[in-house]
Design brief:
CATH superfamily: Gcn5-related N-acetyltransferase (GNAT)
Structural class: alpha+beta
CATH architecture: 3-Layer(aba) Sandwich
CATH topology: Aminopeptidase
Number of helices: 5
CATH class: Alpha Beta
Helix content: 25-40%
Order of helices and strands: HEEHHEEEEEHEHEEEE
Shape: globular
């Protein structure tokens, strides 16, 4: 029954992606990703819940905020790459000044760290990635606080939408975006075997090794 419900919620393509992704990961030499590119309108983001605040953190401030054995899900090298690429890290804090979550935002272009691709973003849009909520705060208002802070960050820059990629079988993330009025622009598939990567709609589609990063141009997308 659980398997049938999962298929009904994800659809056949989402279920197929999940099976392929697990099989590829188990092989140790391959990877499969099918992403939904999601457009999140700023106007549908929540207001800041009482007792929370969100602020931009540099590398030192982020390190200082992560205390007591707490560890965000982005490894240190990934954090360094994101800061070096000019992404802004927003941290949400509760009334006890505890870090409850982070999200990373950028404009212009975004170099993905899970696959080899550079997303070219439309004007008026930012990219959001790496949203993380500390496990013990996931039943509270940390999620709403992060998105409220994201909305404020976007408003200060005249941005109307935030784009992101979500695995098409990541049902919690897809449903969370839908509740905030997001819509899916398109889907893109990335397949890696050894040093080779093939992807749909990128230029070029086939690359080998880390020397060449394909581009995926979203500037013509009707994101509104």
């Amino acid at each position: 029954m659980a398997a049938l419900q999962t298929i009904q919620l994800l659809g056949m393509l989402g279920t197929f992606s999940y099976v392929l992704a697990r099989a590829a990961r188990a092989s140790g030499v391959a990877a499969f990703h099918r992403y939904a590119i999601v457009s999140q309108p700023r106007e549908r983001l929540p207001d800041m819940p009482a007792g929370y605040r969100v602020e931009a953190l540099d590398a030192a401030a982020l390190g200082a905020a992560v205390q007591g054995g707490q560890r965000i899900d982005a490894a240190a090298e990934v954090q360094a790459l994101r800061f070096a690429a000019g992404l802004t890290c927003l941290g949400a804090f509760n009334r006890k000044d505890q870090l409850v979550g982070v999200i990373w935002l950028g404009t212009g272009r975004y170099d993905e760290d899970e696959v080899q691709v550079s997303f070219l973003l439309p004007e008026g849009c930012c990219w959001d990635t790496g949203l993380w909520i500390a496990p013990k705060f996931r039943l509270g208002r940390a999620f709403a606080a992060l998105w409220a802070g994201t909305g404020d960050w976007m408003a200060a820059r005249g941005l109307t939408h935030s784009l992101s990629r979500v695995s098409d079988y990541n049902l919690p993330a897809i449903l969370s975006h839908k509740r905030m009025g997001a819509r899916t622009l398109r889907h893109h598939t990335f397949i890696r075997v050894g040093a080779w990567q093939w992807s749909t709609h990128t230029r070029p589609r086939l690359v080998r090794g880390a020397g060449e990063v394909p581009e995926l141009d979203l500037r013509g997308a009707a994101y509104g």
